[in-house]
Design a protein that fits this description.
single chain, about 240 residues, alpha/beta, Rossmann fold, globular, adenylate kinase, nucleotide-binding, ATP binding, P-loop_NTPase
């Protein structure tokens, strides 16, 4: 932990003001669902900052738990070392742990989980034990035919998750993040062949999750084929 005496006063004041602002925000526990390329990655940082939420990516959390050697992380590493899938219970447990962190005090955005109805049920069980539940599920609905152009032109800033597109949302300088000036990367699976395989899995496994939350009356459909700014407006309207 940093010695506060070494932190610049302006930085301390900025953090204090941010926390005061966040204390007035309503709690929100959100799930973003949509096929790859539907725009979840573009909208997540905007919503995260607006409502002072933490962004929970199960892949990132698993890697962090393994690296920090938490009890759940050690169990996950044992499974991965054997080439086995990490169980749904383990993933939900890691989400449960993450919710205790100060940055998740006002709530979270879950992106990429749950992928199946069984996972959604286990997530609901865990939240029920905490006396809470999912407030809103946003379904980023988009036709498969629109996605290929989106996916193959997508570039990511790895450390923040900010995403760009060579055609639809280009960075100010090609190949460079607008804020940090650090290089952007293109994911290895951002190609047409991998996309078709991922879409098939999404339709088979995850579309039933959309029906699951629709029956609970917490689902809002977002027209994700629109321009990013228009999608942002739809998302803000859905969460207001």
């Amino acid at each position: 932990m940093a010695d506060l005496e070494d932190v610049q006063t302006v930085d301390l004041m900025s953090e204090l003001l941010r926390r005061l602002k966040c204390s007035q925000k309503p709690d929100k526990r959100l799930i973003f669902i949509g096929p790859p390329g539907s725009g979840k990655g573009t909208q997540s940082p905007i919503v995260k900052d607006e409502f002072c939420l933490c962004h929970l990516s199960t892949g990132d959390m698993l890697r962090a738990a393994v690296a920090s050697k938490t009890p759940l992380g050690l169990k996950a590493k044992e499974a991965m070392d054997k080439g086995a899938l990490v169980t749904d219970e383990l993933v939900v447990g890691i989400i449960d742990e993450a919710m205790n962190k100060p940055k998740c005090q006002k709530g979270f955005i879950l992106d990429g989980f749950p992928r199946t109805v069984a996972q959604a049920e286990k997530l609901d069980e865990m939240l029920k034990k905490r006396g809470t539940g999912i407030d809103k599920v946003l379904n980023f609905a988009i036709d498969d035919s629109v996605l290929e152009e989106r996916i193959t032109g997508r570039w990511i800033h790895p450390s923040s998750g900010r995403s760009y597109h060579t055609k639809f949302a280009p960075p100010k300088t090609p190949g460079v993040d607008d804020i940090t000036g650090e290089p952007l990367i293109q994911r290895k699976d951002d190609n047409a062949e991998v996309l078709r395989s991922r879409l098939a899995a999404f339709h088979t496994q995850t579309e039933p999750v959309i029906d699951y939350y629709a029956k609970k009356a917490v689902l809002t459909n977002i027209k994700a084929e629109k321009a990013p700014q228009e999608v942002t407006s739809e998302v803000q309207k859905a969460l207001s």
